[in-house]
Amino acid sequence: MIVSGTAALVTGAASGLGRATAQALAAKGAKVALLDINAEAAQAAAHDLGGFGAACDVADPASVAAALEAAAAVHGPARILVNCAGIGVAKRVLGRDGPMSLDDFEKVIRVNLLGTFNMIRLATAAMAALAPLDDGERGVVVSTASVAAFEGQIGQAAYAASKGGVVAMTLPIARELAAFGIRLNTIAPGLFLTPLLQGLPEDAQSSLARAIPFPQRLGRPEEFAALAVHMVENAFLNGETVRLDGALRMQPK
C-alpha cells in the first residue's frame, strides 16, 4: 500500500503510540484522521499534524460509524486503519478487598478487544466496497496487542486476556479479509515510553529498562510507528503478530 495520498484512520491518536503513528503516516503524505475518545485532544493533535480529529469510542458502534463518516467526508474513504486505542487496569483476581470487580474486567475487554474488533469490522466493510488498487489491494489494518498476551504478569488478567484476544483473532480475520484484498497484522509492543511510563520517576523507568536485553531502554513511540508504517507498505506481510520488545520476556511481577 502506498501511504502518500491515502486516507488513514488511527485510533487512540491523541497521545502515545497512536499519536506517533499518526505523525509517521502524515510525514509519509497520508491524509490522517486522528480518532480518540478525548475529542479536544484528538483535534489538538490533528491541528499539529495537519490532519482531521474526531471523538470516537471504539467500542460504541454508533460513535465509530459517526467518526468514520466524518473522516470520509474530509479525506475520502480510508484504506488504512491503525488500532492504538486501549486501556489497562492492574488488579489482582483476588485482592486485599476481595475478588476483582467483574465490571473492571469487562471494561478492559470492551475497549481493548471488542473495540478493536468493532473498528475492524466497520472500517473494513467500507474498504471492501472500494475499487482495488493495481495490485488488487483494497486496504490494510494494523492492530495493537502487547507482550502481555504471551507473558501476562500478576494483576494483568484482564489486560492479558484482551490483548491475547487481539492476537488470536489476527490470523482468522486476515484469512477472511484476503478475499477482499485487505491485509491485517498486529504489533505486540513491550515496554514503551508512553505517557503512562513517562509519569514514573526516572529510577523506576531505569529499573524497567534493565529488564530489556537489548537495547536496554524503553521503546520509543516512533519505533512502534515505524513498524506500523512498514506493515502498511509491505504487501506480503499479512496475518502476522510481530513482537516489538527488545527480546523482553516478562516475569511474573
Folded structure, characterized:
- By secondary structure, the protein is an alpha/beta fold.
- The protein has one domain (7-199, 224-244): NAD(P)-binding Rossmann-like Domain (Rossmann fold).
- The protein has helices spanning 16-27, 39-49, 61-75, 102-128, 148-151, 157-177, 195-198, 202-209, 221-233; strands spanning 7-11, 31-36, 52-55, 80-82, 94-95, 98-99, 139-144, 182-189, 241-244.
- Strands 3-2-1-4-7-8-9 form a seven-stranded parallel β-sheet, with helices on both faces.
- α2 (39-49) links the parallel β2 (31-36) and β3 (52-55).
- α4 packs parallel to α6.
- It is globular, with a radius of gyration of 18 Å.
- The relative contact order is 0.15.
Task: Describe the secondary-structure layout.
Blueprint: E1 7-11, H1 16-27, E2 31-36, H2 39-49, E3 52-55, H3 61-75, E4 80-82, E5 94-95, E6 98-99, H4 102-128, E7 139-144, H5 148-151, H6 157-177, E8 182-189, H7 195-198, H8 202-209, H9 221-233, E9 241-244
Parallel strand pairs: 1-2, 1-4, 2-3, 4-7, 7-8, 8-9
Antiparallel strand pairs: 5-6
Protein name: 3-hydroxyacyl-CoA dehydrogenase
Family: Belongs to the short-chain dehydrogenases/reductases (SDR) family.
GO molecular function: oxidoreductase activity
